[in-house]
Amino acid sequence: MEADILPLLPPGTEFVRLQGRRVTLRMTAPMPTPERGHMLLEFERRLRREVDAKLEVFLEPKGDVNTLRVKLRGVKL
Hints:
Blueprint (H helix, E strand, L loop, with lengths): L1 H4 L7 E7 L2 E6 L5 H18 L5 E4 L5 H8 L5
Parallel strand pairs: 2-3
Antiparallel strand pairs: 1-2
């Protein structure tokens, strides 16, 4: 099924993984939130039409950068 999804990826996205019916993407280019939401919704609709009616699209979660900075404060490499 992954092979069916890859050619349909919208510009500015990268395939991360397929878990069951959950397709996870990563944004590779900055995009305003409303535009990104519309693009992801349209991509999900297309996947459901052309690949599998039960597929769902998610963005890869990002960690909180500030929390990471606090945890790494004082760490020397």
